[in-house]
Write a structure and sequence with these properties.
This protein has 43 residues and is mainly alpha-helical. Helix content is 77%, strand content 0%. The longest helix is centred in the C-terminal third of the chain and has 19 residues. The relative contact order is 0.09.
């Protein structure tokens, strides 16, 4: 049996990103965290 080719880091990142884009709940959580950071810096 042939062993599977190791994926490059860029491939893993793009795959992860596309899955996140599909997952609305995860996106909402990330957006909320970013918003908190922005508000914290503004003060």
């Amino acid at each position: 049996m042939r062993k599977p080719r190791k994926r490059s880091f860029a491939e893993l990142v793009s795959e992860n990103k596309s899955q996140l884009m599909k997952d609305r709940a995860a996106m909402e959580k990330i957006e909320a965290r970013l918003e908190e950071k922005r508000l914290g810096k503004a003060e």
